[in-house]
Amino acid sequence: STLWCKLFWSCLALGQNVEAYSALELNPDKSQTSDLLRSFLFDLLERGNAKELLNYSYSGMESCIFEYMLSRARSLPIGEAKDYYNFLYSLNITKNNPKQASIVMYEQAYRLKTETEANSRSLNQRVQCLLSTMTCLGLVHASNAWVERPDIRKGILGHDRNVEDEEFTVEVDELLDLKKEYDLTVAQLSLLQLMERQALNPNVPSSAQETVAQLVNMKGYELAISVARRVFFYDLFVIREQIHNITRL
């Protein structure tokens, strides 16, 4: 096993990735496999070889990969974790596991919402994450088309932290909930672009009601009505009153 380890590290250092993976698989000491696999994954991903990583079989190691990559992503600021989330998403799609892929994308969307300012880049990324989440859930049975809503008190998805003397209720988001969140995020992105075109301070509100009100103020009437109808069923009478008051000025 020592020989296989030395061969693995030598090949990895030389960029001979296929040979390094073979040494990992052929090592008879399976107690070393997890550490070697973790090093193999992180090394290639940090060198920008995410596409190559998708070419290996990982027979019987999928659960370990999910654990390592998710743990690594959660330990990093969201701005540095994107590659880990995206690799896990791609790997689960490759392995025909859309439910796990949806979990990964939803967590990334959640962290983009809670850990970043609302700017063009973060909102665009969040739109794509939510769209990917919905697409994946559309591929599973209707009874399983949901994701657990992240709760930072328990860890991102409730598996990481021990919280004593406190009970938690698991909340889930179904496709309709995700569609509302997606529509709201698209509207917030459009609002931000309106503000930037008019050279205004890009201060995007977080709630649907505030977003609707701001869109009306910016004369984005059609989008305001769309958000009101499709996202949170906001009272259209209020919007009509806001539009009427603005047009009288």
From TrEMBL:
Q: Which GO terms describe its molecular function?
A: structural constituent of nuclear pore
Q: Does the keyword Signal apply?
A: yes
Name the Pfam families for this protein: TPR_NUP160_120_M (PF23354)
- Work out whether the entry's keyword set contains Transport: no
Protein keywords: Signal
Signal peptide per UniProt: 1-20
Q: Where is the NUP160 middle TPR domain?
A: 1-139
Any one GO CC term of this protein is:
nuclear pore
Q: What is this protein called?
A: NUP160 middle TPR domain-containing protein
Species whose genome carries this gene:
Artemia franciscana
